[in-house]
Amino acid sequence: MKKERPKYYEIVEKFDRNEISSFSLNLSSGALVYYEKGEKSTPHKYTVPNVELFVNDIHDTVTEYNLAHSDEPIKYDYEKGTESSWLINVLPTLILMVVLGVLMFVMVRRMSASISGETNKTLSFGKARIKNAKDEKRKTTFENVAGADEEKEELAEIVEFLRNPAKFNELGARIPKGVLLVGPPGTGKTLLARAVAGEADVPFFSISGSDFVEMYVGVGASRVRDLFDQAKRNAPAIIFIDE
Question: Is 0.85 surpassed by the pTM of this model?
Answer without folding.
Answer: no
